[in-house]
Amino acid sequence: MEDARGHPLIQRIVTAADLRSRFVLMTNIWMPFHRRPDVTNEQVEVKYEGCSNIFDNYVVTPHGHLMSCCGLTMEYIDELRIGHIDTHDLLTTYNEQYRDLLKLWIWLDGTRFIFDEAAARGVSAELLSPHPCSVCAQIYQDPAVRQEVRKMVLENAEQIVFRATLKLRMRSRPDTPARPRSGSSFGLEEPSEGGNNGS
Ligand code: SF4
């Protein structure tokens, strides 16, 4: 932050009367990806609440991919890439998401709740970052967490559908989540050999 404050360009902006009021310097969230795992910002407040991004932010990326959210790790989670603008109907693809029980659960209780529940059941996985999107990536990518969460989703299927239906109706949305029917609607396929993509 001090480096940024001292930068000549920023100095010029904050000393110019017509620009100063339009400029805000703020610390943004940083989380470990690949190149600089040593650079983190751990000052994210832990909140046990549903993700407010999924289902509300339906994204088309510059490459035409349809994404379930605009979370920081969305490009690293295969299950959040739900179609392509050239081949998928926008509305149908959006509505199909409500068949995915894990996404409903993330929407209801949030990734940290789900991760901590898995940990309480004996899954040993070190939290890489408290940011909910990083936790989300761990849930989908860490084979042990993924496998346990899949079991938890199956065990909690009915209450997830019930609570999601209530939440949708309270938000005056006519959509109702589909009832759980087959493995493909639980949001996590059985782990393939060697785990998920591991990106
Ligand atoms: S927590 Fe997961 S679903 Fe929610 S915005 Fe982040 S990456 Fe997307």
Topology readout:
Blueprint (H helix, E strand, L loop, with lengths): L1 H5 L1 H7 L2 H4 L38 E2 L4 E3 L13 E4 L5 H7 L4 H9 L1 H10 L11 H10 L1 H13 L1 H14 L29
Antiparallel strand pairs: 1-2, 2-3
The structure holds iron/sulfur cluster (SF4).
What this model shows, in words?
With 199 residues, the chain is mostly helical. Among the domains are: 28 residues, no CATH class; 89 residues, no CATH class. 40% of the residues lie in helices and 5% in strands. It contains nine helices and three strands; from the N terminus they run αααβββαααααα. A three-stranded antiparallel β-sheet has the order 1-2-3, with helices on one face. A hairpin with a 4-residue loop joins β1 and β2. It is globular, with a radius of gyration of 20 Å. It binds iron/sulfur cluster. Iron/sulfur cluster (SF4) binds next to α7.
